[in-house]
């Protein structure tokens, strides 16, 4: 049994859905008439807290019976601790009250007692909850000026037990793994100094001076950051951003994505398509993360937990990525000012992704997977849009199961469930509805693009080289470890470098001249230009040249170019061998150096081709 909750002005409803069939005739008892301006579920879905004018009402998740009522005025936000022991509330401060009013409270809500209370001037959705608990609830962390204070929830009155002293600290994130918990903190750039992200083991902090971080990465052009740990607490993603773009290419500023390992062994800039970073998300298990980045059409790339590119999902009009709770299915969507195309993928055990279906959810605002990982819920909500409000439910293959319209819908989503509440099931053999077809639904046909008046009727393409739906130079497939994340096809030659391309053009011109000098026949010239391998030029090119001095000079130029190219390739191969020796000694290499080692096979093949 799964449940969908909806919130309209001043009321909340919860509906139960089973076997893809909505049972809207039996909403859960008494909940549809409850006034609520906001609602929050606990992480496991066992508790529901709603905010109204009377205060905060907490209800049991199964039968929605009232468990507690906290009479608090002007409540703005609430949050449960990981094990539901504590409830954090923020009240809008009264004008002129100053910091004497303790408006940030931590409650032992079952006893309706306040465990700790502090003053906080303002509320930020990006920084909520203002007090973060570790997964075992043994530590509670609070950001203050120039420090992150750490409390013992079992003894809040004792005050600060540990702290991370960090001047101008702007944010933090704590890993939720049971052991070896790490704290990540961010300091924005200022007064000419670069900003940075650092990682500290929580058990090494105390009230004394803070130790140096075990991992650190610095960067310029970053005024704020979003820090996201994976579930095991081994990898951290830092999405840094600034409101201005130095290149004047993006109205939305500039974003960069960095990766740091908790042990400090690896920190790097995640190599993405040029342009903004639209969205990034870890799987629940933390073994992969997916990134949507770049100017439209944006590219989506799948990375492993060690930040190695695994699969290229191609380009398209997308700015959202969402994993199913089991990490098996993945969906891409383009909401906001994009047309609403939604793609469904099945991730295989080796990282390959296979498309299962596609739909168009027009005017979409939110998108969320169900706890069983078999259904997707999209919604059009106010105040983002005040027309066509409602929610839709889809099967993981793209088949629409439900389409409900609501005059004014403020929120819609799934009731959470425990992580082990539903099994990880593969795609069904006949998963496309009653037809039994194994082919995914066709991508909706898009409207024709704009054509300038002077081009109408001429058959000219409306979009030229640019298409919001697809990048002609992009294709789906597995990724190697080369620097530019080009797709490597088994058995294919390595990508040609700029130098080899220039030399090939030069050799082509030389061969073209020699063909014309021999007999002036264009067909003969084309035959000379079509010689397949540079090795034939080196071994038999000189022998095939005739008696004229011009032909001999052209042949010498071609041979000299090939020899120069061969020396350069051999130099690069020696550098690769040196890097491999450093890697064998345990030295840490930069991502560019690792990519250079990955090009060894291509270098050897080209050297052999040139007769080296």
Notes on the structure:
The chain is of the alpha+beta class. Among the domains are: 98 residues; 136 residues, YVTN repeat-like/Quinoprotein amine dehydrogenase (Methylamine Dehydrogenase, Chain H, 7 Propeller), CATH 2.130.10.10; 112 residues, no CATH class. The chain contains six helices and 37 strands. Helix 1 runs antiparallel to helix 4, helix 4 crosses helix 5 and helix 4 packs antiparallel against helix 6. The longest helix is centred in the last third of the chain and has 36 residues. It is globular. 33% of the residues are buried. About 14% of the residues have low confidence.
Task: Report the span from N to C terminus.
Answer: 68 Å
What composes the largest sheet? 5 strands, antiparallel
**Radius of gyration, CA atoms, in whole angstroms:** 30 Å
The CATH homology group name of the domain at 134-269: YVTN repeat-like/Quinoprotein amine dehydrogenase
What integer is the average pLDDT?
Answer: 80
InterPro entries: TIF2A, TIF_beta_prop-like, WD40/YVTN_repeat-like_dom_sf
Protein name: Eukaryotic translation initiation factor 2A
Keywords: Initiation factor, Protein biosynthesis, Repeat, Translation regulation, WD repeat
Biased composition (Basic residues): 503-512, 565-574
């Amino acid at each position: 049994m799964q449940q969908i909750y909806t919130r309209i002005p001043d009321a909340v409803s919860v509906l139960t859905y089973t076997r893809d069939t909505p049972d809207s005739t039996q909403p859960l008892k008494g909940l549809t008439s409850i006034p609520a301006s906001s609602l929050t579920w606990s992480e496991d879905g066992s508790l529901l807290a709603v905010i109204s004018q009377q205060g905060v009402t907490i209800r049991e998740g199964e039968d929605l019976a009232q468990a507690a009522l906290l009479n608090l005025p002007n409540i703005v936000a609430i949050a449960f601790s990981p094990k539901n022991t504590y409830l954090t509330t923020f009240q809008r401060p009264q004008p002129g009250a100053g910091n004497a009013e303790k408006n940030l409270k931590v409650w032992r809500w079952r006893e309706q007692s306040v465990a700790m209370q502090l003053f906080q001037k303002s509320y930020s959705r990006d920084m909520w909850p203002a007090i973060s608990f570790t997964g075992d609830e043994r530590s509670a962390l609070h950001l203050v000026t120039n420090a992150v204070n750490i409390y013992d929830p079992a003894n809040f009155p004792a005050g600060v037990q540990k702290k991370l002293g960090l001047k101008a600290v702007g944010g933090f994130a704590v890993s939720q793994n049971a052991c070896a918990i790490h704290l990540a903190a961010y300091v924005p750039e200022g007064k000419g100094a670069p900003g940075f992200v650092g990682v500290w083991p929580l058990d090494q902090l105390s009230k004394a001076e803070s130790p140096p971080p075990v991992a650190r990465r610095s960067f310029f052009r970053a005024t704020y950051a979003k820090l996201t740990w994976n579930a095991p607490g081994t990898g951290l993603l830092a999405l840094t951003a600034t409101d201005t773009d130095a290149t004047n290419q993006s109205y939305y500023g500039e974003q960069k994505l960095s990766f740091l390992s908790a042990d400090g062994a690896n920190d790097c800039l995640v190599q993405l398509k040029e342009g903004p970073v639209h969205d990034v998300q870890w799987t629940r298990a933390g073994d992969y993360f997916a990134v949507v980045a770049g100017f439209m059409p944006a590219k989506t790339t799948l990375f492993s937990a060690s930040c190695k590119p695994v699969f290229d999902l191609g380009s398209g009009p997308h700015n959202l990525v969402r994993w199913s709770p089991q990490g098996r299915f993945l969906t891409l969507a383009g909401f906001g000012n994009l047309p609403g195309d939604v793609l469904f993928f099945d991730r295989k055990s080796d990282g390959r992704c296979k498309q299962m279906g596609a739909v168009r959810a027009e005017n979409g605002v939110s998108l969320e997977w169900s706890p069983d990982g078999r259904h997707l819920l999209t919604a059009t909500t106010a105040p983002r849009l005040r027309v066509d409000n409602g929610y839709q439910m889809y099967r993981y293959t793209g088949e629409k199961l439900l389409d409900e319209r609501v005059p004014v819908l403020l929120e819609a989503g799934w009731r959470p469930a425990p992580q082990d509440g539903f099994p990880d099931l593969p795609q069904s053999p006949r998963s496309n509805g009653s037809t039994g077809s194994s082919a995914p639904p066709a991508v909706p046909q898009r409207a024709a693009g704009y054509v300038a008046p002077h081009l109408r009727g001429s058959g000219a393409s409306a979009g030229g080289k640019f298409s919001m739906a697809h990048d002609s130079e992009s294709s789906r497939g597995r990724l190697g470890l080369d620097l530019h994340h080009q797709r490597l096809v088994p058995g294919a030659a390595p990508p040609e470098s700029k130098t080899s391309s220039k030399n090939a053009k030069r050799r082509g011109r030389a061969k073209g001249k020699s063909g014309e000098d021999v007999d002036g026949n264009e067909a003969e010239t084309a035959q000379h230009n079509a010689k397949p391998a540079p090795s034939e030029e080196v071994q038999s090119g000189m022998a095939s040249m005739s008696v004229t001095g011009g032909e001999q000079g052209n042949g010498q130029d071609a041979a000299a170019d090939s020899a120069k190219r061969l020396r350069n390739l051999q130099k690069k191969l020696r550098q690769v061998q040196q890097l491999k020796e450093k890697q064998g000694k345990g030295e840490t290499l930069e991502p560019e150096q690792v990519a250079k080692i990955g090009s060894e096979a291509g270098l050897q093949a080209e050297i052999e081709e040139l007769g080296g």
